[in-house]
Amino acid sequence: MVALTELTEMYADMVTARHYEERLQEEYLEGKQPAFDISAGPIPGELHLAAGHEAAGAGVCQHLRDDDTVTAPHRPHHVAIAKGVDLKRMTAEIFGRETGLGKGKGGHMHLFDPDVSFACSGIIAEGCPPAAGAGLAAKKRNTDSVAVAYLGEGAIDQGAFLESLNFAAVHDLPVVFVIEDNDWAISMPKERVTDLEDGSKRADGFDMPGRRVDVDDAVAVYDAAREAVGRARDQNGPTLLEIQVHRRMGHFMGDPESYRPEADQAAAAQRDSIERLADDLRAAGTDDAELEDLRAEAEARVEEAIEWAKDQPKPDPAAAHEDMWVNPPSGVTDSEPDFDLAGGED
Amino acid sequence: MAEEITRELTMSRAMVEAIAGEMRADDEVFYMGEDVADYGGIFDSTEGLREEFGYDRVMDVPISETAYLGAAVGAAQEGMRPIAELMFVDFFGVAMDQIYNQMAKNTYMSGGNVSVPMVLTAAVGGTYNDAAQHSQTLYGTFAHMPGMKVVVPSTAYEAKGLMHNAIRDDDPVVYLFHKRLMGIGWLPAPDGPKTPVPETDYTIPFGSADVKHAGEDVTIVTLGLHVHRALEAAESLAEDGIGAEVIDLRSLVPLDTDTIVESVEKTGTLVVVDEDYRSYGVTGEIVASVADEAVGALDSVERVALPDVPIPYARSLENEVVADAGDIEAAVRRTQ
Ligand SMILES: Cc1ncc(C[n+]2csc(CCOP(=O)(O)OP(=O)(O)O)c2C)c(N)n1
Ligand SMILES: [Mg+2]
User: Fold this and answer.
1) Is the ipTM of this complex over 0.90?
2) Whether this model's pTM surpasses 0.80
3) Closest alpha carbon to B154 in B104, B201, B213
4) Distance CA A176, CA A178 (A)
5) Do domains B5-198 and B210-335 have the same CATH topology?
6) Which single residue of A219, A306, B226, B282 has CA 20 to 30 Å from A237?
């Protein structure tokens, strides 16, 4: 049984994430119409939205503390929201504003919020090794914090992932690898690029527990993640989880998805983890009015973040040259001691 | 009299036409990459090829760049002619060992007994706010390491002729196409890259730079997208009576130093424009190459390149670091 407060928190995260993606989609497309032009409109660059992935974000992050590290891939918003990333500053970053998490330098694929130990990045599977590194630090310092690396099912063929599994296994690191299986890697269906139906089986070769959550269900994810995160926190080593999620939108905004059968699109739209969790909440005694309140609160929070972000100043061009180093280029010193290296004899 | 060519193609269509031509002529030519089959390449680099040649010759591959780029090396060494695509050049990092320790070195290390007749294609370039991990050109990175011919088309005409030569070449060729030039619906190209393209097959030799605009006062050497920005600058400079000669390098390896030196001997002024990082890169190399051969001819030199920072996301920041026509014009004016 999952406590009602936890179900409620997950629901709040998930409806926030869903509304966030839907609103970002609207904002993004504005100015890119009628002919879609990626370099126009209020949100710069590429945009990968995670509608349909919410259960994987909420169900895992529900077990995490601020000091537990999470690395997410190019489709990061639902995980960031579940991890507690500052929504306003994240949104400002996505809009390319000066007060964004990275002062407008990183963008939607490169969000960093050290306050809650969150980062994401755009090269497939590249978050896996740093997650292992966060686990390594926890182990060396003998703390009970853990690290979680998210990746797509398309990323399980990448060396950085496979090497990290081995590294985490051999050093018994407190890491959970979470595969979000949405059946697609851009236009490539899973069966075209791997013979493995269940990606969690990759764990077998590394003598690590692997488990697949076959339904897009926040409670099922929560249960699987409780075990995996608990195992890591108790210093019993890494786990690999795979979670079936659904891609409700294109790979990126502007993706015509002409490669995708309509039936598949329709199926993804139907199996909705948010509705499923709403049913669980009703079964646990939450009435429709309360659910409606939760949704309204989430929507208000999203609106507030977007309004705030759009109001923020754009970065001064000169700032492009700042933030390269933490120390000055000369290092921790700008002077060199005057030794007598000749030993004083002349 | 040469026949007049009127058919115009986008750069992506011209690139695909060359690949299709070579695939029809030789069963051993095949293409590997992510999203190259049904999608037709994220940047239209393989549009329509799967429909004609099927999944066996236009292969979607797992997101395992080390495996499939390395497999291209292996198949090439067996005598096949693979073309392998890095969707964005920025992803080279996950597979660089196969690229520079095998593809680039095997011919030399074998004393010339092994050849690697493959093409590595990759999309390069920014200007659409894709930020630090998806906007680089990395021209200098590939040109720096010996063993790869590195070519960069700036128009449809070049895209086709360079691709025919790349596939037929018995050495590894890195073919870097700029996303902004391809003529993709969602990423509108400037006017220049869509050009008349002969229907017949033709090859453009590597190491033959092209003078895209003649001028007497300043030599602007550039490549890729910045050929078009330099041409724009040249037009505006012409209004003030400054004659800019715009040289499109077309290949970095081999480098056509002769054409550059000949121009600088005439103008005395060299401005090198590049979308890659400034330090230890293309601009420095061009200046040094000219200095090696004709230091006396150089009255004035300017470099226009990315400052040494990762490419930022916000539009105002990216525009600050990637040179536009105005930046090129300003650099030229500083030399006058
Ligand atoms: C090393 C590398 N290769 C290719 C890409 C281009 N790319 C970005 S997302 C993507 C598909 C990822 O699929 P998946 O891992 O299943 O995640 P999803 O997008 O489905 O969430 C690809 C090929 C990349 N970013 N990095
Ligand atoms: Mg996927």
Assistant:
1) yes
2) yes
3) B213
4) 6
5) yes
6) A219
Name the residue in chain B with its Cα closest to that of A43.
B314
Q: What residues does A40 pair with on adjacent strands?
A: none
Length of chain B equals 336
Identify the H or E element spanning B212. Answer: strand B210-213
The structure tokens 């040649």 sit at: B53
Burial class (CB in 10 A: 0-12, 13-18, 19+), A183: middle
For residue range B236-263, what is the model confidence (pLDDT) as tens digits?
Answer: 999 999 999 999 999 999 999 999 999 9
Assess whether pLDDT exceeds 70 at residue B134: yes
- Measured from the Cβ of residue A156, the count of other Cβ atoms closer than 10 Å reads 29
Residue by residue, what is the 3-state secondary structure of B49-91?
HHHHHCCCCEEECCCCHHHHHHHHHHHHHCCCEEEEEECCHHH
The answer to whether the Cβ–Cβ distance between A123 and B132 falls below 8 Å is: no
Higher pLDDT, A244 or B3: A244
Chain B touched by A110 (CB under 8 Å): yes
Q: Which residue has the tokens 């906007």?
A: B135
**Interchain CB distance below 8 Å, A106 and B313:** yes
Say what the pLDDT of residue A79 is. 99
Flag if B64 and A158 touch (Cβ within 8 Å): yes
Nearest CA to ligand 1 atom 7: A124
Distances (CA, A) of A290 to A74, A222, A279: 33, 22, 13
Does B128 lie at the interface with A, CB-CB under 8 angstroms?
yes
For B101, the token pair is 């320790």
Residue showing tokens 């030599």:
B219
**Hey, what CATH class is B5-198 in?**
alpha beta
Question: In chain B, where are the structural domains located?
Answer: 5-198, 210-335
Whole-angstrom distance, CA of residue A178 vs CA of residue A183:
15
CATH of region B210-335:
3.40.50.920
Q: Is A6 helix (H, G, I), strand (E, B) or coil?
A: helix
Mutant choice from B316, B320, B322 vs A, greatest count of A C-beta within 10 A: B316
- Residue B43 CA to chain centroid, in angstroms? 14
pLDDT given for residue A344 in this prediction: 62
Tens-digit pLDDT profile for residues B282-308: 999 999 999 999 999 999 999 999 999
Report the alpha-carbon distance of residue A175 to residue A130 in Å, rounded. 10
Whose tokens are 């032009």? That residue is A37
3-state secondary structure of A45: coil
**Residue B178 annotated as catalytic:** no
- CATH code reported for the domain at A4-319: 3.40.50.970
Backbone angles phi, psi at B318, to 5 degrees: -65, -40
Q: Which ligand neighbours the alpha carbon of A124 most closely?
A: 1
* Per-domain boundaries in chain A: 4-319
Distance CA A133, CA A136 (A): 5
Residue A184, SS3 per DSSP? strand
